[in-house]
Design a protein that fits this description.
Blueprint lengths: L7 E4 L2 E4 L10 H5 L2 E3 L2 E6 L2 E4 L2 H15 L7 H15 L4 E9 L11 E8 L10 E5 L20 H13 L4 E5 L5 E3 L4 E6 L2 E5 L8 H12 L4 E4 L11 E6 L3 E8 L2 E2 L8 H13 L10
Parallel strand pairs: 8-9, 8-15, 12-13
Antiparallel strand pairs: 1-2, 1-7, 3-6, 4-5, 4-6, 6-7, 9-10, 11-12, 11-14, 14-15, 15-16
Helix pairs in contact: 2-3
């Protein structure tokens, strides 16, 4: 579903066919999950194909590598140009782009100087589609920030995400909502969380969450639309009196939440602040004005 015999990807300085790509099975990233990646979207806008927040994503990729000690020497502008060339070579506009920085063979638990870059792209719909989600509180917590660099988008961190999402689906839900080690709401396995109450949006403060680029985009949209938004620690009990909630992320974009642990929110999604943000976000990624979006 991700590539065909004609798909082109970028691997270690060259554009090659995906079917011809290979890697070392002794890679430290493969054995220990020591690598960094990004998820980026491109859109067919009124002004041509544009990668949304390209610089921010590639800057975060470089920061993730620096935080965990992976040597990575590409310049941001060079990475942006590779991404645009990749889209052109595969002749796609609306696309998901996945850069992956991974390490060479090393069976020791030490840093390696041998580092590779792979970048690929494919057409991918919204991660959760357009439906509102039925979520559950996960038994899996977000890791202790003293044990990992939580602000780094590192491959191994997503074992936690796979466990949480898989558990939720076994239980009959669409997605999980994870708590931090102190019992506060943190985030979904691959998206940040926002909650509406009495005309204000609340989102978990930094510390136990990935500082999402889409999360910051939502905060910026709220400022432009004069929607009050506050970052704070959110207790599970506060969900009971919340009016609505939604997730946001590059893959998911903006997706409404119907219920958490089978308890629905009181406000219809189309009347929620999240729906307003969703429409404004759509306008922004397509480079349309969202001045008509009224709250």
């Amino acid at each position: 579903m991700y590539y065909t015999k004609d798909t082109i990807l970028f691997l270690n300085g060259k554009f090659i066919k995906a079917v011809d790509a290979h890697t070392d099975l002794y890679s430290q990233s493969l054995h220990y999950g020591f690598g960094a990646f990004e998820g980026i979207r491109a859109y067919q806008t009124m002004n041509g194909v544009k990668i949304f927040k390209a610089y921010e994503h590639f800057e975060r990729l470089k920061k993730s590598c620096a935080l965990v000690g992976i040597p990575f020497h590409y310049e941001t502008e060079e990475l942006v140009q590779i991404a645009y060339q990749l889209l052109e070579k595969n002749d796609i506009g609306d696309a998901y782009i996945r850069p992956l920085v991974y390490c060479g063979p090393n069976m020791q638990l030490t840093h390696t100087d041998e580092v590779y870059l792979m970048m690929c792209t494919w057409e991918w719909d919204k991660y959760h589609g357009d439906k509102q989600l039925k979520m559950c509180i996960s038994s899996y917590q977000r890791p202790n920030p003293n044990s990992l660099k939580m602000e780094a988008k590192v491959t191994g961190h997503y074992v936690n995400s796979i466990l949480a999402t898989s558990e939720a689906k076994v239980r009959g839900y669409d997605e999980a909502l994870m708590l931090d080690m102190e019992g506060n709401i943190a985030e979904a396995p691959g998206a940040n969380f926002f909650m509406e109450k009495d005309g204000v949006l609340y989102t978990p403060s930094l510390g136990h969450i990935l500082p999402g680029i889409t999360r910051q985009t939502v905060i910026n949209i709220c400022r432009e639309l004069d929607i009050p938004v506050k970052e704070k620690q959110i207790k599970v009990e506060e969900l009971e009196t919340a009016d609505s909630a939604f997730l946001c992320g590059t893959a998911a974009e903006i997706v409404g939440i119907e219920s958490i642990d089978a308890k629905p929110f009181g406000k219809p999604w189309y009347d929620s602040l999240g729906a307003t943000v969703q429409e404004a976000y759509k306008c922004q990624v397509l480079e349309k004005s969202f001045s008509y979006v009224i709250i």
